[in-house]
Amino acid sequence: MKTVITGRVRLLGDNVNTDINCSNKYMAGRDDTYIAQHAFEQVAPGFASILKAGDIIVAGRNFGINSSREQAVRVIRMMGVAAVVARSFGRQFYRNAINNGLPLIECDTGGIAGGDEITIDLAAGRVTQAQGTVQHVKPLPHEILAVLSSGGLIPFLEQHPDWKLV
């Protein structure tokens, strides 16, 4: 995984919970591919059909609140989302995203519009809009970057069998 990600913004609002992108009404007897085709349609009809691989979801406060299901992150990854930028995240969702190799950045998203192109530098802690506006955010720790670059926690541990918690 690259530590610098550039992509087109797909905008969502505040309080987008895990039931919005991974709705129970689509889960019964269905696989993640089917669910991904309907993700977020309760708050943004047609969202899945306009999303392209490499796009970046930008949202407001409390993205990913609600349940702790990892399927919500898997569906977002399956959709080809490169990263999610939001004012804040549900803590369980944040951890599930890191564990599953999905980069997340918390910052003020007020000046970012749908369709904009942004560049995220995970290591330097910068979110740069195409018109040059730069937001400085806390860089992701080296350990989290290592997990993300491995594709998630399980692949990281498989690649580093001697790694120990300190």
Summed up:
By secondary structure, this protein is an alpha/beta fold.
Percent of residues in beta strands: 15-25%
Briefly note the CATH topology name: Aconitase, domain 4
In helices, the fraction of residues equals: 25-40%
Give the mean pLDDT.
88
Q: How many discrete structural domains?
A: 1
Q: What string, H for helix and E for strand, traces the elements in order?
A: EHHHEHEHEEEEHH
Task: Please report the distance between the alpha carbons of the first and last residues.
Answer: 25 Å
CATH 2nd-level architecture: Alpha-Beta Barrel
Structure annotation, total helices: 7
Descriptive overview:
It is a single chain. This protein has 166 residues and is an alpha/beta fold. The protein has a single domain, classed as Aconitase, domain 4 (Alpha-Beta Barrel), CATH 3.20.19.10. Helix content is 28%, strand content 19%. It contains 7 helices and 7 strands. It has a 7-stranded mixed β-sheet with strand order 4-3-2-1-5-6-7, with helices on one face. α6 packs across α7. The longest helix has 9 residues. It is globular and about 45 Å long. The mean pLDDT is 88.
List the helices and strands and how they pair.
Elements (H helix, E strand, L loop, with lengths): L3 E8 L6 H4 L10 H5 L10 H4 L5 E4 L11 H8 L4 E4 L4 H9 L4 E3 L10 E5 L4 E4 L4 E3 L5 H9 L2 H7 L7
Parallel strand pairs: 1-2, 2-3, 3-4
Antiparallel strand pairs: 1-5, 5-6, 6-7
Helix pairs in contact: 6-7
